[in-house]
Structures are given as C-alpha cells and as structure tokens.
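Anyone have tokens for LysE family translocator? Sequence:
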Amino acid sequence: MDLFALLSSGLAFFIVAISPGPATVSNATIAMSHGQKTSFVYATGLSASLFVWGVIAMSGMGAILQTSVYLLMALKIFGGLYLLRLAFFSAKEAMNSSNDKLEKLQSHNSLRAWFMKGFVLNMSNPKSVLAWMAALSVGVQADAGFSQLLAGLLVCTFAAFASNYIYSICFSFNGAMKAYQRFRRWVSGAVAGLFSIASIGLIRSAFSKSPG
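Reply: yep, here.
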C-alpha cells in the first residue's frame, strides 16, 4: 500500500472540502453567530454526510448514480430546493433588525438539530460523490482491494472532519463573533445570495444534458 498515494488522496480531498462553498460558508456563519460548540456539532453533521457519500463512491454506487439520469436529476432538484430554503432563512435574518428576537428563535435549535442541518446540507449535494471519486482516484488504483479502498476512505474522511473543524475554530474567535454581530444583516444577506446562486446552479444542472 503506497502511503504517499494515500496522503495525496487525502490532501486532494482536503483542498476540495476546505474550498469556499455553501457548506463551509454556512459553517463559518454558524461559528460566528452561535459559537464553537454549535459549529462543531454542525461541522460533524457536514463531515458525517461526506463519509456517507464516500461509502457510496467506494462501493461503486457513485458511478451508478452518475449514469442514472433521473435519480441524479431528483437529487439535484432536492438539493437546489434545500439551498433555496436556506437562502430564504438567511434573507429573513438579514431583514430582521432585532438580535434579541433572532436569538430567541435560534435557541430552539438543539444540538441534534444542528447536526441534522449539517448532515442534510451535504447529503443534498450529489456533486459530493464526484469529489470523492476524484480524490480516491489520486491514491487508489483501479484494481485496489478492500483494504486499500478502506484506507483511502478513512484518510479522506479525516480530511473532511479536519477542514470543517478548522472553519469552526477560526470563525468562533471573539473578534469574528463581534464582527458578525456588527455586520450580521450584511453577512446574512451575502449568504442568502450565495445560497440562491448555488440553488439556481444546481437546479439548472439537473435539467442540462450533461450528466455532471
């Protein structure tokens, strides 16, 4: 088993996972608005769903998914609608001028609910399986046995958890949280715009002729 190849696979996945996108932006926003503990739980949900996508990719179902036009279309539409839902709530936060009312509403979310929010967000993005297939192809040979596939899965899963926890740590510092409280409405508005763009892009890709 080539250790260097496995580390290369993990690094490739880490770069993809830590790149700015709906998941990382939402995690950063939660870290700034709710603190490190809540963000860690949310990040765990994000990472757990990436692990599930990794199992799907490793089992060969990822390739089947990419060739199943209607299943992939349904997943993309679901993912786009879920992102649109997140955009709506972010826009609602941006229009809410009362921090007290907002904090009261957010306090009803349990840690389990935050975990599920993160889990559903990444599970609603079928393009995650593409990231897994690309990363595994870097360090795992086509004729690899189960042990090598499992090693690749574990290395990339570690990279997924590390990238999400880095966002939780970096954006939960007092400075970041104070800045968020000051510019909360602007940040929420920007996040709403990002989610809207990502939603439209995912839904449009569902009806494109290209399978990717």
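The chain is about 85% helix and 0% strand.
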